Amino acid sequence: xxxxxAIIGAGITGTLTAIGLAQQGFRxxxxxxxxxxxxxxxxxxxxxxxxxxxxxxxxxxxxxxxMIEGARTFGPIxxxxxxxxxxxxxxxxxxxxxxxxxxxxxxxxxxxxxxCTSTFNEVVQAEGGAYVxxxxxxxxxxxxxxxxxxxxxxxxxxxxxxxxxxxxxxQRLAPHLRAALAAxxxxxxxxxxxxxxxxxxxxxxxxxxxxxxxxxxxxxxxxVINAAWSDLVRLDEQIGLESLxxxxxRYKLANRVHRSVSTTDLLSVTIVLxxxxxxVNFGDQGGIFVSWYPHxxxxxxxxVDLPDWNVAEHEHARESAxxxxxxxxxxxxxxxRALHVINDPVDVRGGIILASGRLDVDDPNSALHSRVQVGIxxxxxxxxxxTGKYTLAPLMAQNVISQVKSMLx
Length: 409
Fold this sequence. Notes:
Elements: E1 4-8, H1 12-23, E2 27-31, H2 62-82, E3 94-99, H3 106-127, E4 140-142, H4 145-148, E5 157-163, H5 170-182, E6 187-190, E7 197-200, E8 206-209, E9 223-226, H6 232-238, E10 247-253, E11 255-257, E12 268-272, E13 277-281, H7 283-286, E14 288-292, H8 293-296, E15 297-301, H9 315-332, H10 334-337, E16 346-347, E17 350-356, E18 375-379, E19 382-386, H11 393-408
Parallel strand pairs: 1-2, 1-9, 2-6, 3-12, 9-19
Antiparallel strand pairs: 3-5, 4-5, 7-8, 10-15, 10-17, 11-14, 11-16, 12-13, 13-14, 18-19
């Protein structure tokens, strides 16, 4: 095959897409503004492989269905493209705590969990796949009060649920993705290269240019895939492609405490439903993920000109946000407080998140309670990929690979 493809953005979606296309015999230029692949939001997030539990306020129920599709295919796709089994880098199972100021009641959440678990189990039985822990069935149950009242403040929480939902550690997955990328001879790697312009040539091909107007990489491409999440809207607008009618960008901290923890030291927990957060126990090798949304969301903007909040200039603001988040969790969780993480080293960085809508998650009308306005949009041989959630990244990559193959072969 002589076709040459450019992929802009080497996050998890762009990287898996590049690997898959190279395995199909395509020559790929993978262009990334950072010095290595799988950074920003692909590296700094909680890695939860969603089963739809968090989207109890999506009245259409389309988001849980989409998350279930991503969850049952995440492990198989990563293993097929890279040879790596994500089952080796999982968090402990998630508990869900219903906050007393939740947008959803405990009874409604109970019904929602039941529907999610039964749907996942039915789909896997009918269509195959498995959850990231290798199981073909998932579970969720209401916890008795004596199971959790000494671990979390009953004045803050009304109910707790035990589930089999887990997170893949994105920081331990990233090196395996980079290694698989480096092994593909048909991929040309372009690190530290920012794409400022996507230019149609009039014959169906494309040219990419940098900040000074210089040609990037091969200069002319038969097909372009925009997988640069934080640059998705800006580049799409240049060619008149509108994938979201109303959108917003957020920068969210993904604090990682470097502390060796056992599976019994700390529950992995997500609070529902509103502007809350997560604790994730990644064990003795991965440490603890700590997120508290009211402090950790440092940007909420409609602008496409986004500063890099991971640079040293903003380190003090990030550290201050983490300290407030740590204190908030210590007030809610005696179990977390008992770990005394105050003196432990912590990585205070995060990533830009693109989502539909401009109301925040504490508003019941917010579009953030839905993640269905995602996927692939096209203009000729230009593809734009809005991953939506980490859970969906391998599925999105697989879908792009399939569409490109059908178009060019």
